[in-house]
Amino acid sequence: MKLGTEIASAGLADLDTLEIKVERVVGHVNELRGQNTQLDSTIRTLHEQLAVRDDMVDSLRRDLAQANLERRDIRKEELIRSKLATLLSKLEVLEG
User: Fold this and answer.
1) Model-level pTM greater than 0.70?
2) Within the chain, how many helices (H) and strands (E) appear?
3) Containing structural domain, residue 34
């Protein structure tokens, strides 16, 4: 009878050990799920920030393109004024 009791006790001890191990694994899995949730939230935040920055880059590119067009217009205007000044000088010489 003693041997049967020892076997039963050993089986219970093994079950207790197994239960402790399972609880640890479940705890670790729950911890990993929590970390996964945090990472998902961080990724969403980063995607939102990236979208905002992409919009800012697009806006800056449009502003730069507009500024380049305005600069070309100013150069054309300066060239026209220079040519007009030259023509006026020539007219003054012819009249003078």
Assistant:
1) no
2) 1, 0
3) 1-67
